[in-house]
Amino acid sequence: MIPLEVLGETACSLTGPEETAIYNESREQLLTALSRLNDRERNLVALKFSAGLTNRAIAGIAGLTESNVAVILYRAVRRLRAELDAEDS
Question: Would you say the pTM of this structure is higher than 0.90?
Answer without folding.
Answer: no
